[in-house]
Amino acid sequence: MQQDFLIVGGGVIGMLTALQLADAGHSVALVERGRCGREASWAGGGIVSPLYPWRYSRPISALSSWSEGRYPELAGRLLEETGIDPEFRQKGLLYLRVADVAAALDWAREVAKPLSRIDAATLYAKEPQAAPGFDGALWMPTLGSIRNPRLGQALRARLAASPGVTLHEGREVRALIQEGAAIRGVETDTGSLRAGHTVVCAGAWSSALLAAVGVTLAVRPVRGQMILFKAPPGLVERVVLKDGRYVIPRADGRVLAGSTLEEVGFDKQTTAAAFDSLHESACSIVPALAACPVEHHWAGLRPGSPEGIPTIGAVPGIDGLHINAGHYRNGLVLAPASTRLLVDQLIGCEPIVDPTPYLPR
């Protein structure tokens, strides 16, 4: 049976695309070589903002601004419909030791974002366990975080219950089905899946699949390692960022610390050097973490791209082929907007932002 849309890749990008298309009344098949939500979407930290948003280009800012306000609604919907709580927390973010404070405050004024300089007393009132000695910080009260593994679980459960969606997990895509100047589905290790439109949302693995049909996509794997502390509830209440590293608290007290940036191809092994570096960074932000055991250490592969700008849209000259990949460090941040932008184009709605900067070349 041919579906309206076939989505390759079961991360948050692929699953949100499937959900939005199903909401619009279309039949959707989603194919994932493993289990949905278990690659980069699972491995990240879940901060719903670029780490230093004032340092990003306008195309990323446009998507992130639209996305951030959608997570409370999305989390609430998924909890209601699946019983799985993605744990959206809007506790704000503290920036320690920022070199370009003036640029940050100028950006905040330009985009009407609440970002302010706070003194030491306010800093330690908000986060008493933060490392001593700072004379202040930057404070963004509206920043939220989401427990991304649970977001993936909730999206998967929602799609599994949808009559318009068929999940094909544990099926590896071998090739796109090309018929003349059109793509009409994929060949997998267990047979073919056909659709009127095929959307490649395979993250770091997208480039190799597209290259086989002559499409060049500048997306590469970039390894990121993280560690998880088992901490008592309340030890850390907010996301705290210093020198490009961060700690992220969860509702049960656990604290994530991340992350590395490593150009090592498709190698997902963890390393002792990264563990030591992440542990040192986390304890330099919250010294009390030194007394907490590390429960887990893992790695994921981000889809790196030039300037971190994702490719979103129809591939010119090939009918039925679309891409949504290359979000680099901001896949969760940009997911609601980037998927909505593509779905708008797929079903003929007015795009939420100008699609030009993201179109495949």
Order of helices and strands: EHEHHHEHEHEHEEEEHEEEEHEEEH
Q: What percent of residues adopt helix (DSSP H or I)?
A: 25-40%
Give the C-alpha Rg.
20 Å
Distance between the termini: 32 Å
Strand content: 25-35%
**Secondary-structure-derived class:** alpha/beta
Which parts are unreliable, with pLDDT below 50 for 5 consecutive residues or more? none
Work out the helix count.
10
CA-based shape: globular
- Mean of residue pLDDT? 96
Strand tally: 16
Largest sheet: 8 strands, mixed
Summarize the structure.
With 361 residues, the protein is α/β, with parallel strands linked by helices.
Write the layout of secondary structure elements.
Blueprint: E1 3-8, H1 12-23, E2 28-32, H2 40-43, H3 58-68, H4 71-82, E3 93-96, H5 101-111, E4 116-119, H6 120-126, E5 136-140, H7 148-160, E6 165-169, E7 173-179, E8 182-188, E9 191-200, H8 206-211, E10 220-229, E11 239-242, E12 245-249, E13 255-258, H9 272-285, E14 294-304, E15 311-314, E16 321-325, H10 331-347
Parallel strand pairs: 1-2, 1-9, 2-6, 3-11, 9-16
Antiparallel strand pairs: 3-5, 4-5, 7-8, 8-9, 10-13, 10-14, 11-12, 12-13, 15-16
Helix pairs in contact: 1-7, 1-10, 3-10, 4-7
Domain FAD dependent oxidoreductase: 4-344
Pathway: Cofactor biosynthesis; thiamine diphosphate biosynthesis
Protein name: Glycine oxidase ThiO
Any overview of this molecule?
- This protein is of the alpha/beta class and 361 residues long.
- It is 30% helix and 27% strand.
- It has 10 helices and 16 strands.
- It has helices at 12-23, 40-43, 58-68, 71-82, 101-111, 120-126, 148-160, 206-211, 272-285, 331-347; strands spanning 3-8, 28-32, 93-96, 116-119, 136-140, 165-169, 173-179, 182-188, 191-200, 220-229, 239-242, 245-249, 255-258, 294-304, 311-314, 321-325.
- The strands form 2 sheets. Strands 1, 2, 6, 7, 8, 9, 15 and 16 form an 8-stranded mixed β-sheet that branches.
- Strand 12 (245-249) and strand 13 (255-258) form a beta hairpin.
- The chain is globular.
- GO terms for molecular function: glycine oxidase activity.
